[in-house]
Amino acid sequence: MVNKAPLEEEVSKSDQLKASDYTKESWKKYEEALEHAKKVLADPNATQSEVEEALASLVKAREALTVNKALPVEEVSKSNKLKASDYTEASWKKYAEALEHAKKVLADPHATQSEVDEALDTLKEARKALDSKGFMLPKTATNTFTYIMVDLVLLLVGFALITMQKRRRKVS
To answer: Where does the chain cross the membrane (predicted)?
Structure first.
């Protein structure tokens, strides 16, 4: 007698899984293994070795289901370039909370794709909502701005000196 109970139990686990929680590639492999397992279950002439092979394949495919965490990792790395002192306290607090949540989701090996996507969206929204503290130049403009200001001061000093010399000549 062929024992199909373990395979039936494994197939029933598929009811609790959602394609949107995993990468398309890993879900496709899981679906293929699941379809094969269902065919073996439906086959009245299936042998015990076919049932065990289908079970092993399905378990392997389920355990190989993966979540795409590349985009959130990239978004989290952008936080290294941001400074709390550049933003209002309230907006930075929301961003910091979203960042912490995203880091927890990324560290969770059991996080689903929908959880990862939600954490990414929340973090992006929080970054876009950051309010800067007044007028600030980008770091790349700081040196240029400084040189322009120094040049303007020197021009004004030069103009003042020339004006003073002309007045002295007229008086003499």
So the answer is: 145-164
Q: What amino acid is encoded at 42 in this protein?
A: A
Return the half-sphere exposure (C-beta side, CA atoms, 13 A cut-off) of residue 123: 24
Tell me phi and psi for residue 66, to 5 degrees. Answer: -125, 160
- What's residue 83's pLDDT? 87
What percent of the chain is helix, strand and coil (3-state, nearest 5)? 75, 0, 20
Summarize the confidence of residues 90-103 as an average pLDDT: 93
Specify whether the CB–CB gap between 111 and 73 falls below 8 A: no
User: What pLDDT, on a 0 to 100 scale, did the predictor assign at position 135?
Assistant: 56
Lookup: tokens for 123: 């973090």
- Asked if residue 64 has pLDDT above 80, the reply is yes
Residue boundaries of the structural domains of the chain: 5-63, 70-128, 137-172
Distance CA 91, CA 133 (A): 10
Quote the CA–CA distance of 117 and 122 in Å, as a whole number.
Answer: 9
Cα 111 from Cα 107, distance rounded (Å):
8
Distance CA 77, CA 107 (A): 14
Residue with tokens 């954490």: 119
The residue that leads in pLDDT, 90 or 137, is 90
Closest CA to 126 of 160, 96, 149, 170: 96
